[in-house]
Amino acid sequence: MNRKLPLIALLTIAVSYISSAQNSPSIIEDFKPSTKNQPGKEYPQVNSQGYARFRIEAPAADSVRVSLGLGGRGGTKLEKGEDGFWVGTTEGPMDEGFHYYHVNVDGGTFNDPGAKNYYGSVRWESGIEIPAHDQEFYALKNVPHGKVEQILFPSPSTNTSRRAFVYTPPGYAENPNKKYPVLYLQHGWGEDETAWSNQGHANLIMDNLIAEGKIEPFIIVMTYGMTNEIKFGGLRNFDITPFQTVMVDELIPYVDKNFRTMADASHRAMAGLSMGGMETKMITLNKPDVFEYYGLLSGGTYAPEDIDKEDVKLIFLSCGSKERPERIKEATEKLKEAGYPVASYISEGTAHEFQTWRRSLKEMAPMLFAK
């Protein structure tokens, strides 16, 4: 079934951070290197309150500013020291979790040499991690680990081979006769198929949930959503047809042929964050015979009139408390009243960012393919 979808907000305006005095009495001086730093690099740093501090070497520069958040809005102005290093601390604490950022030097855009890079905002951006109170659920632990492997699958519709990453759970190789359900998990605008593993730690979330006995193992497939050809603000012109063809007619058959899947709609889910949620909604409505589990993570909502009850086993809706949680709550209530199998989750204290989506995956995963 084809339906026009309202434009959803893909990016929230990042909080604007302005430089503050380095020795402000309100800031606890227990800064430590971010866990997303390059090996051996001391900066950027974060403290126990969630402040971030940056130090950039640019002795000939006249102005250095750090822009935080998807799209790089806002910024922290750095001050130049006699040693040629520019240093600055965010005006306030940042939300827990992962954030993109880049450095503006005299109007030019650069990445921080001290930080690792992650694909977001249609470019490789620097990344910083603000330790979260609940970070244990995506921590690297001494538990059995699954495998994330790159695959290249033929795509006649685009006249090339396309890339996807496939997570197979612990024990997959050791159980050659066992078949698994599959979640097709999509990234957001400006990101690519590396996002859910690198920024989202989807594989670690799965490993930990499986080790704790909270979910039955399943496969996750992550591919490029063909979104970066659409510039921000041009989503009304977005055509789902090319990606729908890649997903339904090319990727799914390849995965079913090359992995031990339970190749039917009742064992197949699709979910996505932000624009990946919009893609999920479009494809699940257009192809109700392909998936029976739907997940929109900061990616809009469904209405009862969108879906036939017999087509779906679970609708999962989520967002951050700093987004528009009332929309999720209202949509959930309407679906419940109409008798649909729906669940929702609001990530407290987060916005349109990966901590929201990490938590959402943790909450959604145990509901998928539940017996």
Provide tags for this entry.
Esterase; acyltransferase activity, transferring groups other than amino-acyl groups; disordered N terminus; eight-stranded mixed sheet; Esterase-like; 371 residues; Mycobacterial_A85_antigen; Rossmann fold; Immunoglobulin-like
Overview of the structural elements:
By secondary structure, the chain is an alpha+beta fold. It is built from 6 helices and 19 strands. The strands form 3 sheets. The chain has an 8-stranded mixed sheet with strand order 12-13-15-14-16-17-18-19, with helices on both faces. Strands 4, 5, 8, 9, 10 and 11 form a 6-stranded antiparallel sheet that branches. A 5-stranded antiparallel sheet has the order 1-2-3-7-6, with no helix packed on it. Strand 10 (117-120) and strand 11 (123-130) form a beta hairpin. The relative contact order is 0.13.
Ordered list of secondary-structure elements with their pairings:
Elements: E1 32-33, E2 45-46, E3 52-57, E4 64-68, E5 76-77, E6 79-80, E7 85-89, E8 97-105, E9 108-110, E10 117-120, E11 123-130, E12 147-155, E13 160-168, E14 182-186, H1 195-198, H2 202-211, E15 219-223, H3 241-258, E16 268-273, H4 275-286, E17 293-297, E18 314-320, H5 325-337, E19 342-347, H6 354-364
Parallel strand pairs: 14-15, 14-16, 16-17, 17-18, 18-19
Antiparallel strand pairs: 1-2, 2-3, 3-7, 4-5, 4-8, 6-7, 8-9, 8-11, 10-11, 12-13, 13-15
